[in-house]
Amino acid sequence: MAVSGFEGFEKRLELHFSGNDPLGLRRLRCDALAQVLDAVQCTVVSAVGNRYFDAYILSESSLFVYPQKMVLKTCGTTQLLRSVPCLLRHTADLGLRLRACRFSRGSFIFPRAQPFPHTSFAEEALYLEERLPPSLCFRRGCVLPSASSHSWHVYAAADDDEYVAAASPSTFTVEVCMTELDRSLARGFFRRKGDERSGDAAGVDMTDLTGIGGISPRALLCGFAFDPCGYSMNGLDRDRYSTIHVTPEDGHSYASFECTGGGEVIEWLRRAIGVFRPGEVSVSFCMAEGGDEKQVWSATSAALEPLGLSCRSQAAEGLPGAGIVTYQTFTARGK
After folding, report:
1. Which residues are annotated binding-site positions for substrate?
2. For labeling, which of 30, 117, 297, 299 is most exposed (least CB within 10 Å)?
3. Hey, which residues are catalytic here?
């Protein structure tokens, strides 16, 4: 718990591996995953899977495990990067080799509450520099600036300067951070007093009543409602995932939306932001080399302007193993 409130902004780690076993990372034992999460200081509260990947809702955000890819996203004062040494030991036992790593986060609401190694982006980058295997020799960290106090911090590494983890120029990973949520809508993420249902059961109602169920209608959604407030959702749509996390308290309200997909992600993005009507939004796309950042910027702005949001800044960088990372910030008109 942060000094002034709960830190909603997540830290995100994406790792890509190669190996001969078709199940790969999905062979990680439950006790091995528990050790990794214990290093981060979080636990699994709900889990589901399909033929493509496993999705876990955590006490502090989410974990997605594919045969050759893992995405770990945690909020609060968790120590996300401490998962790396433990995870690399377990994956080595499975005969898996790390090919690429990408760490990303926004600007913390309560930066002074963060423990090592998350006290600064410089510390985070140094921590990864010292713990990633030497085979990941192409490395770069950068801070994508904005017109507001929010910046996008990204560190990426890969074992080949031509290796890009994204599948194709038409496949995206989208990370959205929203603050200053509409107060009336944020109240939908508080549980009623005396509600003794499980987090899963209460999460089903929260998913339906807040409109989250309409963002990606084809996906299998697993929502979890925390007590007394807060919400997490993982969505599974064949080999694509989506996730939402909400910290609804006044004064430091926050919601995130993340998904993978093709051109349809712009519509999902528009619907997700419509659920929360935030005062400020940042949107980051990650896509393979060959993607058109200007086209992404234009499509994102066109989707958000009808929601009363104006683009304030945009930036893009090429990173090893990640391809192109774009960053845009928006604020509600009249602010």
Report:
1. 6, 60, 226, 249
2. 30
3. 61, 75, 232, 245
